[in-house]
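Retro notes (design track)

What went well: tokenization of the new backbones is finally stable.
What didn't: we kept losing track of which sequence belonged to which structure.
Fix going forward: every design gets posted as structure first, then sequence, in one message. First example under the new rule, 294 residues:
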């Protein structure tokens, strides 16, 4: 059947690419791009990617043939290949990355834990990984209760970091687990909850002892969360200039105006925040309100 006869008409581009690479490999894909106009529009142009970027993409997608193709083209970032393969749960590609020269076992451990792959965590340990707190961070970031417990069994002990990351990810169960294991940095938990935008965990952090409402106000403004700004104000926040700067840096005009209504007056700080965030309109607004050029 001709490649132009409609064989691929009803398939998604990524599916077509996967079929071509799986059946014929990257060399066939490259050949098809150069000889068939229709396939040229459907198959990604590998030559537009750097060899190492191509290698990372191949490892992330679990494509052995494309990894080998990237190596032939000059790729040599085996550590990045290892990281992506570990995150994706591809033991064969992890072993290939090791054979080619990778040795970042702690980062492999972190990525495998984030991806929820216990077997690759054990493999990273067998190869020499020892950073159990980094494993704990990955497991918490990925929301994997069982791997948090495994990291603890192997020696992890950074419960406050676990608490903050669990709050950021919206995982109340892991927050409670971190607390049971010894976490006590409630303001750190509050910060994580704010960064993730989880109101219920902000309230829980307050119940457990958090009190840094001004930081909450600033970060909520930076993230564009008016509801959390109002909550921080209700709980005692009063740093309106900090709120103004955060809102300006995040590009939230409405919250800048709200901060002004509540009492903010440091327009120079607003100007700096807006400039740092790349928001020209807010820089101009700060000047209208009174900011002066330094």
């Amino acid at each position: 059947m001709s490649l132009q006869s409609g064989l691929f008409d009803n398939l998604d581009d990524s599916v077509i690419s996967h079929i071509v690479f799986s059946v014929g490999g990257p060399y066939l894909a490259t050949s098809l791009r150069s000889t068939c106009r229709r396939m040229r529009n459907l198959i990604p142009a590998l030559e537009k990617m750097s060899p190492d970027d191509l290698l990372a993409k191949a490892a992330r997608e679990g494509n052995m043939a494309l990894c080998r193709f990237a190596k032939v083209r000059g790729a040599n970032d085996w550590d990045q290949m290892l990281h992506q393969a570990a995150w994706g749960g591809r033991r064969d590609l992890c072993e290939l990355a090791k054979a080619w020269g990778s040795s970042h076992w702690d980062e492999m451990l972190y990525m495998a834990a984030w991806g929820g792959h216990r077997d690759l965590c054990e493999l990273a340990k067998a190869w020499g990984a020892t950073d159990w707190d980094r494993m704990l961070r990955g497991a918490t970031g990925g929301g994997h209760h069982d791997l948090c417990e495994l990291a603890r069994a192997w020696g992890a002990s950074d419960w406050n970091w676990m608490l903050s990351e669990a709050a950021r990810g919206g995982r109340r169960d892991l927050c409670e687990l971190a607390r049971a294991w010894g976490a006590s940095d409630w303001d750190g938990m509050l910060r994580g909850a704010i960064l993730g935008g989880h109101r219920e965990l902000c309230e829980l952090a307050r119940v457990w002892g958090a009190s840094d409402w001004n930081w909450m106000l600033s970060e909520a403004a930076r993230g564009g969360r008016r509801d959390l700004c109002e909550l921080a104000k209700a709980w005692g926040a009063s740093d309106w200039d900090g709120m103004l700067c955060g809102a300006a840096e995040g590009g939230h005009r409405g919250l800048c105006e709200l901060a002004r209504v509540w009492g903010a007056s440091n327009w120079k700080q607003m100007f700096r925040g807006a400039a740092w965030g790349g928001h020209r309109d807010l820089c101009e607004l700060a000047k209208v309100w009174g900011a002066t050029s330094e």
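Added context from the reviewer: The CA atoms of residues 249 and 273 lie 4 Å apart.
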